[in-house]
Amino acid sequence: MKKLLLIFMVGIFGLSYSQKIPTVLKTGFSKEALKQKLEDENGKAITIQQILNQHKGKVLVIDFWAGWCRDCLQALPKAEVLEKNNPNVDFVFLSLERSKEGFDKSLVRFNMKDKDNYWFASGWKNDFNNYIDLNWIPRYMIIDQKSSIAKYYAISPEDPEIQQTIDNLLK
Questions:
Q1: pTM for the whole thing?
Q2: Mind listing the pLDDT tens digit for each residue in 55-76?
Q3: Cβ proximity of 166 and 86 under 8 Å
Q4: Which residues fall within 8 angstroms of residue 3, CB to CB, at 6 or more apart?
């Protein structure tokens, strides 16, 4: 009986922490979300708006990840394939590491130094992540050439809708 209760409790616990699909799939960002600051590898502050401005006119894939996240690490090779198969698409990696030291170490450890990386120094709970309903990583978003959200929610780089969305935007 104790084993059954333990299995039940673990199952309930697992379900309560599983990724929940947002009920509203947003197509744009709030002013507060766009003002959210991140840091680059050198510790220089940059806003989401500035990142979007740097990639305006291009299709952009945003990859939310962290070096401590097992699911993220399993997805990295698949994300690299997505990136290699889409040379006309920009990729930005937003890290949810718990510290700047962790961010720096993960960039080296997972061969991410040559990529466009930023870190949420403010932590997981911030205006941007709250606005996009970020409740789990990895998470992928596709931004169109006008900085609108074309694909709001994907949890795997292998999600066929990611490639379909990219293909449609590049037509």
A1: 0.86
A2: 999 999 999 999 999 999 999 9
A3: yes
A4: none
